[in-house]
Amino acid sequence: MQKTCTQCSSSFEITDEDLAFYEKISPVFNGKKESIPPPTQCPECRMQRRLTFRNDRSLYHSTSNLSGKATISMYHPDRKYIIYTQQEWWSDAWDPLAFGASFDPSVPFFMQFTALQQRVPRFPLFNVDSENSDYVNYAPHCKNCYLLFGSWFNHDCSYGQTLTECKSSFDNLFLEKSELCYECVDCASNYRTSFCHSCSNCSDSMFCFDCKNVRSSVGCWNLRNKEYYLFNKPATKGEIDTTLAQMHSDRGLRTLRERYGQMIRERAVHQALTGSNNDESSGDFLFECKNVRQCFSAYRCQDMAYSARLMDQKDTWDFEGGGKGELAYESMSNDFAFHSIACTTSEHLTDSHYCDLCFECKDCFGCVGLRHKQCCILNRQYSKEEYDRLIPQIIEKMRADGEWGEFFPVESSPFAYNETMAQEYFFLTKKEVLKRGWKWRDQTDEMPTVSKIIPAMQLPDSIDDIPDDILNWAVECEETKRPFKIIKQELEFYRLMKLPIPHFHPDERHKRRMAQRNPRKLWQRKCHKCGKEMQTTYGPERPERVYCEECYLKEVY
Question: Are 390 and 480 in contact (CB under 8 A)?
Fold first, then answer.
């Protein structure tokens, strides 16, 4: 079945497998199945729509509407939403059901749900079960972390995105089970590595690309099971140590980075699609997946499509961020959910749909901020019989308004477009955002309280010459001119790792790491070696030497 996207007007296919899933996910009330219709938007526009509801990185000073206490929040101070501190929100001091309302059949459901979201208190950040980590978001189960986003189960980590079970690591993107890592992208099980990309089980190495089980090496690519290599040639320990000594200064680091970058562009082999141990799957960064289609950054997943940043998930379509669940559709940031449609930022949901900030709930529809509840609609309690009788009426109204089976519209997001992850994966200018009728927020930095602001280029070149007093300064970003501070544990990390002070604002550093990852898009392209057609996230115009899986494996093993 071919359809035309209602947003971008592109043509997209609804496959038989898609239709089978929509039938499978369709809920049953009073013995009648409420069929989920095929989507009206293409997969990319659906993903963009979901991502506009997730603000990881834009944080603001705010105050609780309950106590007036100061807090850090993902919601701008001019918000329309009620904010409580973490402790207040999770306490029994308030009742989410007190904000409930009866369904009004004369008003679109999405409008009623948005109004409920603006009435029910929200926690300022999603950092449940985190300790000494006030400046993290969507980072539950973390300890002693700072400016860490979309991550979980980390200790002593800062300035990172999508870290899992890591320790003492700074400025990383997509890092798993690693320690003492710096400026690494798409790496796993590494120890004391810096500026590495797509490396695993490596240690004491810097500036490496696509290396596995490599130790004490610098500037290498496509290596397997090697030790003491310098720019892909065997080296002595003394030669490695001499090269690493260049890293102590910003000037030496830049020289090494430039040489490494040129060699990766000219000599490295790039795998068409990154991943391993997959069966009948398409997408990028897939590991131990089976029958997943057009998915990205998925781990141990099965029977999925059009999804990203998931682990241990099954039977799921159009899902962003989370995992350890089954039968989910058009949802975002959910863990441990079973049979849920269009739910956001929730955990342990069962047979619940169109819910937000709900935890340990079952048979709930259109609810916000509930915990340990069952048979609730728009935060109002019903008996099971009343619930099953009313839900079909709501779905009938939603179907008439074109809402049933669709995710919430971008216009109802609590965030401006450029505050959200949508801007990272689907970049738009301010003019383009406003033309679509979406929100935009001009960002302004609060001036830090410091003894002085020093331009980055005026910093001492070597980490050995950086004084303790830098903790009382602000550094002016070399690129954006935005001021940023160095925190104590960060300075200690740079000294331990013999790394120079960064010259760029944390947001700029994140932007540059994101630029190292390929887009969530698949192209047809010919293998650089054998010439056969293949699917890849490297656009046909890009200069890298991209190999099909067969040629790649022959080259690196």
Answer: no
